[in-house]
Amino acid sequence: MERACGAIKVIDSLTTKTLEQEPYPGKDTPPLDGHVLIEYANALNHVDRQGLSTTLNAAITAHVYALTNLGAMINHHVKHEDVGSMVIVVDTTAAVLHEFCRT
């Protein structure tokens, strides 16, 4: 469980930093790249889950899907409001994972 929780913490930190890179007018900030979030999801999906509870496994899977969907939405240039809604899902699934790791 320690390894899975460590991976969750790293992926969440990277996700947060990636999402905070909003482009600012007049600055040379690159546009948000959804492929990065999909890569984070893939990395989390490959974490060794042997010995984890089925509930924690399901929570990891939900977070993987949320990250993947968010990345795809960004890549397809969907409405900002829709991306914002998916960010909430990503934040919520991450919060659930952090709660599992706290116990």
From TrEMBL:
Keyword entries, A-Z: Plasmid
Superkingdom: Bacteria
Protein name, as recorded: Uncharacterized protein
Organism taxonomic ancestry: Bacteria, Bacillati, Actinomycetota, Actinomycetes, Mycobacteriales
